[in-house]
Every structure is written in C-alpha cells, then in structure tokens.
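Encode chain A's predicted structure.
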Amino acid sequence: MKRIWAQCLKEIAQFRRDKLTLALAFFLPLVALLLYGYATRLEAKDIPVAIQNFDSSSLSRDYVDTLFNNGQLKMVHWTDGDAMRQLDLGNAKAAIVIPPEFSRKIRQNIAADVQVLVDGTDVNNARVVKNSILATTQYFVRSHHLSAGNDTSLLDTEVRLWFNPGRKEALYVAPGAVAINLWIFPCLLAALAMSREREYGTMLQLFTSSITSFQLVAGKALAYWIVGMIQAMMMLFLAIVLFDIRLVGDVVIYFLSLSIFVFCSVLFGLLMGARAQTQSAAVQMVATAGFTTALLLSGFIYPVRNITFPLSLISYVVPARYFVEASRNAFVRGSDALSQIQIPLYLLICAFIFYMAASRVLRKMQLDR
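Encoded structure for chain A:
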C-alpha cells in the first residue's frame, strides 16, 4: 500500500507542475460542458410505450393497434407491475391506460377518457410521443366515426408529461454532457501520463524498482481518480448553476456510480497509454476507442435502442452508456436505488477488466525488458 501511495503522490506532483495538463484537466472540461449543454438538440424513433388495457374489447384493441401502426412508437411488454411501473423503471417512455368502460361509454355516446403519461426526461421525444398519440387518436376517431354530433369526439386523450413537465432540454442534455466529459478528460490525462513514461524512457526506471505492474497501475489510477473526482465536482457545480438541474434521485447510488465511473475512465486511459508508444498515439487511441464510442454508443446523442446491429452489441461494453443512464436517473427521473443498483455493478466489472488488462500489458513489457 505504501508503494501505491508513493506512486500516487509522485503522479500528483508531476501533474501540478505541468501547466498544459492543468488546463486540460480543469479548463477544457468546462468549455466542453458548455458546448454540449447549449448546442446539442436530440430526437429519436421507435419510442417504447407501455399499454395497460383494462377494457380488452375489440374497439380498444383496434385503438392500440392504430397507435403502433404509425412507426414512431413501439410496444413494451412486461410481466410485473403495471404500465406506470415501466415508466418509473425507464423501460418505457410513455404509459397509456385505457379505462375498463372504454367501449361501453363510446357505444352510449359518452366520451371515454384515455390516460397518457409521457416521460419528459427527453423533451424532444416527449413532444414526438405527445403529438403522435394525439394525431393517431384523431385518425382513429375519424376512421371509426366516433363523434356525438357537433364534431364532439367520443374519445378524449389526456396527455401529461412525466418527470419533466416543463420540457426543459437542459434536464436531458446537461446530465449526459457531464457523463461524456467525465469519460473523456480523466481518460485522456491518464493516457498521457502513462505514455509519457514510455516516450521519455522513465518507464525503465520503474521497471528496475521493486514496484509491480499492479501497484504501478493502482498508484497512477488513484492519483488521476482524485483529479477526476475534482473535475466531477466542478462540472456538477457548473451544471447545477448554469442549467438549473437538481439531484432528485438516490444520492448514494449516484455518487457510488460516479466514483466507479471515474475509475473506469482513468483505467481505460492507462490501458490506452500502456499500449501507445508516444503521447500523440495515446491521444489518437483515446479519441478513437474512447471518445467516439462514448459519444455515439452511450445514448447521449442517439438512443441506444436505435443503434443498429452489430454496433448495438458494442454499446454493452461502453461504460459511458451506464453512467449516462445513471445521471439522467439521478437528475431527471428520480429513480430509487433498487431500480438502478445494476449500474454500479456493471461499472465495477468494467473497471476490473480495464485494471487487469493495463496491468498485464505493463507486466508483459516488464518481462520483455
């Protein structure tokens, strides 16, 4: 443990002396957060919707079929709970509840109300869902001649946005932007630190000492995890002040996920730095294998469900995917710990894989010497 701590202190001392690295650590992440937060606008297709049909008549089934024939919505199937539960868990972006007297009221020329709850986490998707359901309902009314005279519809759809009723885009973009920045910059700093050892030849001095590859990786990871957590606190503070977001989910599970995610980022950077011969090569590897996958396959820009096969399989091993979800759960949906306990577990597995891979690369390099 003393060797790990000594390596950590040595890395922090080197980090503090490099002004360019300090700017990379604390200035560029804030700039990137502002760019992502104010410039990103998103929309999606195949939006999952949960249906709860208490009527089960042929007319209500026709209405459900009409809703999903427009190509924008996709039905969610579940076994436990109800449609609202799927909305709370994030499995569905909207929940539609058809009352038990739906067909009877319509046959008696009485307007029947259908409840629609839309997840307002993603403002653009919420708008798409709302307009799609309203337009489809109007088409259903016209095609089935469901009017009671004076153009009064017998079917009234009441739509309410859930989680984000004010439809504030910042509530969706800012938490995701924090997650992407926390993947990019701690990763990049760690990669530069590791590749610098190889490029300047100081790695040979480390190999001649009694420190093992596992201790070396642990010491560097601890140092840049501390830096990454400082970055995280700065970006969270900035996001809260500028974008007016608030932590509404489980605090413990979020900060646990945050801590492990920063470790994932640092360990991935150390792995890339151990594989690279120069600092420029490390930057290119991080940009290609880290930044591009996190930006496109994490769900920050495009919903993960819209990623085509086989790229959809790669998204399962992108840690940013899980922390983007954790951030939006914490700042928008307000999910409890039980519904997202799997997120820190996934991140912990990723961190362990990156740690072992980076240690083995350095171990092999040490033995080759």
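DSSP finds 15 helices and five strands in the chain.
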